[in-house]
């Protein structure tokens, strides 16, 4: 596992010749020599044109490995940084085909503003051949000089379902959001792009009593959707293919936490608008101050620009050990 410490190993009865491996800092992995080699071989065959996804219908895991402030400057004075990331086959540390050349974009969210594309990460080359490591250099991080601001970074790969990690940069990246968004009106017509704004994360216990982050095993999450770049709410009755709550623990890649929110209707003056509430989301790992959970919502069928909510006693990213592939990529 490279620098990732394996702490527990158990048989995966759902897949022949496969095991689950629990790591100290990189989550739980499904390891199978046969499936990894077969998927890598199929990926290499499909990647002959340089644009095919890593595995049929499988998606990709995108892991931000480092955010390096120039000259190792501290948060309160750093102006620019370089970001390095790797792509892995889903639920593993196996690399996609060496010849795969996807379009990889880094997204950035400031405070509770929706994330926006920051730029295209460039793939490294070795002796003129593509190498599975991507970089975006000279990223402006100066807004985090102010302790009241924080930055969140995530990754998307064009045309491929992407499970991304989240990197938080700031003196205190925890989310403080006492005032919820109030729409200025209702969007009309076709809505192809939306801002998914988490309004509140309410931690509680099994009995429904409010608790602090270090005491709560569950949380309710309320999300509102707006036409992208506006404060125009989607109308009551708006129905995308699905509304999904995603979460990434620490430096793990994000996973779908829930897909069945309860639709509610709220009023702000003369405006009636919908919100969606995910109830009893498990957040118990955050009772340990070493753990943090990054939450964001997406609407399937619409391009989504999400806000990032950081839930934890300390939501800064500490990630000294980068992920090391367990299997070299195939040409």
What is the CATH fold-level name of the largest domain? Immunoglobulin-like
CATH architecture term of the largest domain: Sandwich
Q: Indicate the mean pLDDT.
A: 86
Shape from CA axes?
globular
| Helix-strand topology string | EEEHEEEEEEEEEEEEEEEEEEE
What is the total tally of β strands? 22
Q: Can you give the helix content as a percent range? A: under 10%
Low-confidence stretches: none
Q: What is the number of domains?
A: 2
User: Order of strands in the sheet with the most strands?
Assistant: 10-4-5-8-7-6-9-11
| Biggest beta sheet attributes | 8 strands, mixed
Distance between the termini: 22 Å
What is the highest CATH level, the class of the largest domain? Mainly Beta
Proportion of strand residues: over 45%
- Briefly note the structural class of the backbone: mainly beta
Count of individual helical segments: 1
Question: Can you tag this structure with a few keywords?
Answer:
5-stranded mixed beta sheet; Immunoglobulin-like; 1 helix; globular; 331 residues; 22 strands; 2 domains; mainly beta; 4% helix; 8-stranded mixed beta sheet
Briefly characterize the structure.
The chain contains one helix and 22 strands. The protein is mainly beta and 331 residues long.
């Amino acid at each position: 596992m490279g620098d990732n410490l394996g702490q527990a190993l158990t048989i995966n009865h759902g897949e022949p010749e496969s095991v689950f491996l629990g790591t100290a800092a990189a989550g739980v992995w499904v390891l199978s020599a046969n499936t990894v080699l077969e998927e890598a071989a199929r990926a290499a065959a499909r990647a002959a044109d340089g644009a095919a996804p890593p595995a049929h219908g499988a998606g990709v895991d995108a892991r931000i490995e480092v955010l390096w402030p120039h000259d190792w400057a501290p948060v309160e004075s750093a102006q620019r940084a370089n970001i390095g990331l790797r792509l892995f086959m889903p639920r593993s540390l196996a690399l996609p085909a060496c010849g795969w050349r996807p379009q990889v974009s880094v997204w950035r969210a400031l405070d509770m503003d929706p994330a926006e594309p920051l730029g295209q990460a460039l793939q490294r080359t070795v002796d003129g051949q593509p190498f599975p490591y991507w970089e975006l250099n000279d990223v402006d991080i100066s807004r985090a000089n102010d302790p009241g601001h924080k930055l969140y970074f995530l990754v998307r790969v064009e045309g491929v379902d992407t499970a991304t990690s989240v990197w938080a940069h700031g003196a205190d990246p925890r989310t403080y959001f006492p005032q919820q968004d109030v729409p200025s009106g209702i969007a009309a017509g076709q809505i192809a792009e939306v801002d998914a704004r988490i309004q509140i994360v309410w931690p509680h216990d099994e009995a429904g009593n409010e608790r602090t982050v270090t005491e709560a095993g569950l949380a309710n999450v309320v999300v509102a959707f707006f036409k992208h770049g506006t404060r125009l709410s989607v109308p009551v009755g708006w129905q995308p293919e699905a509304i999904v709550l995603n979460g990434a623990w620490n430096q793990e890649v994000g996973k779908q936490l829930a897909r069945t929110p309860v639709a509610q209707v709220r009023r702000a003056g003369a405006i009636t608008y919908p919100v969606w509430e995910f109830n009893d989301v498990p957040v118990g790992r955050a009772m340990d101050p070493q753990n943090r959970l990054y939450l964001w919502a997406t609407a399937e069928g619409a391009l989504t620009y999400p806000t990032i909510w950081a839930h934890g006693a300390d939501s800064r990213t500490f990630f000294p050990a980068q992920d090391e592939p367990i299997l070299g990529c195939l040409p």
